[in-house]
Amino acid sequence: MKFPHLNKKSASFDLTPLIDVVFLLLIFFMLTTTFVNLENRVKVNLPSGDFAAAESSENIIVTITENNTIYFNGKLIDPLKLSESVAAEIKEEPERTVVLEADKNVLHGKVIRVMDLLKKGGAERIAIATQPAEKK
Question: How far is CA 77 from CA 54, 85, 89, in A?
Answer without folding.
Answer: 25, 9, 14
